[in-house]
Amino acid sequence: MTETPKKRGRLFYKFLFVFLVVSLVPLGIFGYYLVNLGQRTLNSAISRDQEALAVGFSDTVYSYITSFRNVLFDAAHVQDLSTMDAAKQNSFINHIMQLHAPFLELSVINSAGVETVRVCRFGHDDERRDFSSDALFNKVMKTGEFVGGLEKYMGSYPAITIGVQVVDPASNKGVGVLLAKMSLTGLSSILKTGFPEATHTQAAVIDSNGFLIAHSNPKEIYKQEAKLPDAILKVLLQNDAKTGGGEIPLDTGERVLGAFAEVENLGWLVYIQRSVSEAYKASDEMLNRTWRMMLLVTVFVLFLGYAVSLVITQPIRSLREAAKKLGEGDFDYLPDLHMPNDEIGELAHTFMQMSESLKIKTAELMSAKEEQERLNHSLENRVEARTRELKSAQDELIKKERLAAIGQMASVVGHEIRNPLAVINNSIYYIKSKANSAATASSVPVDPKIAKHISIIESEIRQANSIIDEILGFARTRELNPKLTHLNSYMEEMLMSFPFPPHIELVRQLAPENPTVNIDTDEMAQALRNLIKNGIEVMPEPGKMHVRTEMAGNMVRIDVEDAGPGIPKETLEKIFAPFFTTKARGTGLGLAVVKKVVDRHKGRVEVTSSLGKGTCFRLFIPLAQGAPNK
């Protein structure tokens, strides 16, 4: 079996860490500062150069537009145009179109705003236009010249409109307007020459709305709605500075180094961009070389620190293994410690003495712990038993106090209500007698409505007395008066005296053993009558009611089963609670009385119910001890 290699301790790595900190941290901080300073300086210089390049090209764009404006300005002061002779003007305009290819269209407009000559490079149009109400014409006549915004000539060529005032050389007064549409594709050619694809640099000229005027890739300007990416336009159009530059993150996740400069008097922007990786390639290479050198130095220091740390930590590692065994509770198999005659050796000797002392103390503590656990367990059991007894006694006391209070209240309320009910009942009897006497004397029968309302009052009096009886029966707690009773005879007598309605069929199934029970016959009769009464009330349609008695070990079971609609599960748990009822009229004490009577006889009540099929109440009553069954 091979021995598991021993792991290096934390002290070993601490020594390594100290060597690294002492040797590498100052070098790393100084090197990092120099590299970052050099990188920032180089990157800043690259950004400034690109910004200067943008400024230079903005001057080029301005000079390009200005040169053609000057051509128009010189032509507008020639006598051939100011004479407003159409033939001379046409010849002169054609000569200009031949000399200057960027002009796509030239028009001469007289002072009345009527076009006298129009020459187009593509196609021919003899129709003369009226510019008298045109804002461009009026502005040129007022200010002397105008340079318009970007437009797509024939839906394809980017172009601008330039207008200059035609001046009579003799009077030096404006006599019309020379209007030109000038193609800007030449600017794209200039940008392509200045920024070929091999340089990984793109340049563009945009107007104040962000549309492309020129691009180093001429294909871009012919696109529909030709624009730079939104991320770039957001930076350029929201910037009020004349020039600027910096890194711009694109929506694709790429970062570019951009620079811009405004074209004088035109409101255009020259924009130049390079990918950050290309722009900062030199500074990144310098940074990579520095880090490689730092890595070589780190490896060397790590190797040197490893050798020194190993010599120092070897004795401490053996002591650590012994401490680990001791921590696991293994006092009998501690390793032999061969330590040098120095401070570490003294530490090992002290450690062995401590382990012997700890072994003795641990044995004593374990014994005391076991004894304490045994006593705690015994105490917990006794406390738990006493707590249950106390809770049971407290619940019983609360129940008795509550019943006593309810009984006292019920007695007072019953007495106070029954007296008015007796007076009402006597009054109704008197009214009824008088009505019958009057009807007999006059041979006129009693008014049916009066007889009906007298009957309703009598019914409500009986209902009120019944409710008072229920409340008093539940609230009063009297001593039980048990006596030995043969259950079958008792059940037969009770069922015969109960008024079952005609639509209810009673089915008796009495135990053949005729068990003997020790019960309070009055209270038990009240409980059974409550169950039978409830069953009849939930069976408005014809049906069967089953009353059974069966032996159940040392108890007898009395079943009262109806064929009603059943009791929902959520209601079943509450039916024995006092004053809980689902009926429109009722006290909710019927089943509470049943539960109370059975509990007083040391029995129990069970109920099962199926929705749509019916409900069965089972009363379990103890058999009389030593009494024979008949």
Task: Supply the key terms.
19% strand; 18 strands; six-stranded antiparallel sheet; five-stranded antiparallel sheet; 14 helices; Beta-Lactamase; Heat Shock Protein 90; disordered N terminus; alpha+beta; 630 residues; elongated
Structural write-up:
This protein has 630 residues and is α+β, with helices and mostly antiparallel strands. Among the domains are: 77-183, Beta-Lactamase; 480-622, Heat Shock Protein 90, CATH 3.30.565. The protein is 53% helix and 19% strand. It contains 14 helices and 18 strands. It has helices spanning 10-76, 79-82, 86-99, 135-143, 185-194, 230-237, 276-279, 281-327, 343-442, 448-475, 487-497, 521-537, 569-572, 590-600; strands spanning 103-110, 115-120, 145-147, 151-153, 157-167, 174-183, 201-206, 212-215, 243-249, 255-262, 269-275, 483-486, 504-509, 516-519, 543-552, 555-561, 604-610, 614-622. The strands form 4 sheets. Strands 1, 2, 3, 4, 5 and 6 form a 6-stranded antiparallel sheet that branches. A hairpin with a 6-residue loop joins strand 5 and strand 6 (174-183). Helix 8 packs across helix 9, helix 9 runs antiparallel to helix 10 (448-475) and helix 12 runs antiparallel to helix 14 (590-600). The two termini are 86 Å apart.
